[in-house]
Amino acid sequence: xxxSKFCETFDRIEATPSRLSSTDFxxxxxxxxxxxxxxxxxxxCQGRVAPEFEDIEVGIGDRIAEQTIARTAGVTVAKxxxxxxxxxxxxxxxxxxxxxxxQTRLASEELTAQKVFESVSRMAQAAGTGxxxxxxxxxxxxxSKSSGAEAKTLIRFCxxxxxxxxxxxxxxxxxxxxxAGDKSLKPDIERAFNLSSDLGMVAEVLLSxxxxxxxxxxxxxxxxxxxxxAERLESAEAIIEKLGECAVEGKYDGFRIQVHKDRxxxxxxxxxxxxxxxxxxxxxxxxxxTDVDAKEFILEGEAVxxxxxxxxxxxxxxxxxxxxxxxxxxxxRRIPLRLFCFEILFLDGRDMxxxxxxxxxxxxxxxxxxxxxxxxxxxxxxxxxxxLQRYFEDALSRGLEGIIAKDLNAPYxxxxxxxxxxxxxxxxxxxxxxTVDVVIIGFYYGKGKRTKLGFGGLLTAxxxxxxxxxxxxxxxxxxxxxxxxxxxxxxxxxxxxKEKPREVDALMEPDEWVAPKYVVEVNADEITKSxxxxxxxxxxxxxxxxxxxxxxxxxxxxxxxxxxPHDATTVNEIIELxxxxxxxxxxxxx
Length: 590
Ligand code: ATP
Description:
The chain is 41% helix and 21% strand. It is built from 22 helices and 22 strands. The strands form four sheets. Strands 12, 13, 14, 15, 16, 17, 18 and 22 form an eight-stranded mixed sheet that branches. Strands 3, 4, 5, 6, 7 and 8 form a six-stranded mixed sheet that branches. The chain has a five-stranded mixed sheet with strand order 1-11-10-2-9, covered by helices on one side. The site of adenosine-5'-triphosphate has 13 residues, from β1 and β2.
């Protein structure tokens, strides 16, 4: 298959604002792709060479890309940079500079998709001394065989700036269309993806073995499962009304992690965002070898720092210091972790995600022996609101963040926020019931003291998972520490884009747009209707078109969150929070 097919498809996707058309173009591309290449084709569309949890990247920065373009086009680096400044996109600059040269290319030299996939994998695998030069050589070879359009796609891919904004939901829809001609396979494909976090592998199984294999998909030790998420309700009464008798667990405030042990005995630890963290938590890796009675398993829990003297739980601000790559031995002595397990998802070949909570929990208690490093999260079965409220208050007094109530009969619903889990936190008693995780889509220059930093605030959005776009919700101008301002001005400067990214939906214009990449935690007084924001936009009671906005939004100390933009707070959650806030207001007026 020719690589130009991919480039044509990406160009068509870039030119259309319609999600449906993008899905259609992509599904046609997948249909044409040989089954032997579909896996890498899907990674390529995601701008990657492997699933996200493998942490393998091509690793070519703008500077190296500029050098490579200059070398291939036979011009100076200064000329490439000037072209980049003029066009605001290094891919487009490369296309312009290489176009002439490409016209002399022979038809027999046309790039195949296979050649490109192999080359980018080789670039990603290059490590150690001389690796930079090896990468340049590989990219030079590709560029010298590229047309203008191909050079554009290659440079965008290698510099991690695809600009077509295809998220996982669009790829899943396209796969369903490719096989069934409609969206009917979406729930099955989605489940397989949620269980494996590997869309390339799911596509390969689907196209080579059919939907039957996708429906029979099981967790795989070593592949992180996308986490089940909790809904919110405002009170113990509301929870009991929703669930009836339920299990109530303490809500620990640390790192949510998954611990995997495969048949060969290899232990791997993943973060909530499916990042590998095995090397960071050696004491937990050691503990699971002795304290878990199974050959192969996937456990989930919250890892929390413990004071070695008092044996008490440490606050999140202390636990978070464990998130470092250096000095791990010393840190693990000073702030040892304890894993409070709350789920068992896979056990010696058995998929536990279908089993009801009751059964999973009984198995968890049987499998995990309680030690200093690993134990089962505390819990209590509650039948009435009074008992639940007492347990909640007791949990707060012991330094926990709140409680999570769990439906005794529900399966584990990977990758989704459902009422099978409901969280209740102390902050819910206020006007806005929770912090919100927003995606940075732009920023403003500062005034006064902030002029020096080149940073004066953020334009932020929430994620609309129904149409795979980021919709603006707040201009955040306060709550920043000096360090945060410096951090933002540095980090955001690197991801500035000339125009509003196509996956962003916003009416306001920031001073600079950025690619949606970072998620930050913000607090606000309440959610209000707003004519200037796009989140939840629709026609209000008075016939005016309005969206929802955060009132008096401010940055929290948590700052940048360990979440990908697609895991930010969603538009639907904002609508629910808005309704919850109005119920709480009504209640307090009574
Ligand atoms: P929050 O900011 O409230 O932690 P979140 O967006 O990080 O929210 P949610 O799914 O909304 O995640 O809340 C559940 C989180 O609470 C989990 O991600 C997990 O880290 C944490 N947690 C602590 N104790 C438990 C428990 N016993 N069961 C499930 N999750 C728990």
